[in-house]
Amino acid sequence: MSQTRTTLITGGNSGIGEALAKKLIDEGQRVVSVGLEKPDWTHDLLTAYRADLTSLEETRAIAEEICRDHAVDCLVHNAGIILPNLLADARPEDILTLAQLHLGAPMLLTQAAMEGMRSRRFGRIVFVSSRAAMGAATRSAYSATKAGVHGMARTWALELASSGITVNVVAPGPILTDNFWGVVPKDSEQQERMARNVPVGRLGTREDVAHAISFFLDERSDFVTGQVLYVCGGTSLAGLSP
Length: 242
Fold this sequence. Notes:
Layout: E1 6-10, H1 15-26, E2 30-35, E3 46-50, H2 56-69, E4 74-77, H3 92-120, E5 123-128, H4 140-160, E6 165-172, H5 178-181, H6 189-197, H7 206-217, E7 228-231, H8 235-238
Parallel strand pairs: 1-2, 1-4, 2-3, 4-5, 5-6, 6-7
Helix pairs in contact: 1-7, 2-3, 3-4
């Protein structure tokens, strides 16, 4: 992005969101982070808020506060949780929780930011989804809501295209983050086995995903909207064994 923009990142305090925040700040961009925790670092270009995005009321309130105080040009909805369970143990209420986090929260944030984006004739909305949207064992609630992200993003892409706003999705495969290690023990044989099963021969890094997101945020990417980019080392083609 050549012009200085403000990017709102959900979950900007850790993992992919933190990597993206630092990348944008290194490029001279302003970043607003919102999540359960504030980043453990500070910068003149960083503003941070705390909110539980699984709460409809908290999300609505923080969306209004952020968009009152900041001209949000770009929104990256990165916050997410997995809640893994095989079908026999899956809980329907998990679907409701993840639907609010993965779908309801970005809807409220986008609604709050949309007027400003339209008035400036510029906006970038990027969802961080998952290769699991294509299906993955133990991911009933997660894969269902992430697949829903793809449909919602395409719908918004059509609705917002005439306003200069693009909407795209980055769908990572196995990425070395706390979310990943919450399911797969860090540096375990299972992690090594998964790495060997990725077609490119390694697991992804948060910087891999941040790089892909930054493409969609770029002002020069205005002819790309409604797309899903799998950043997955080829696992969207070949699958991934646990």
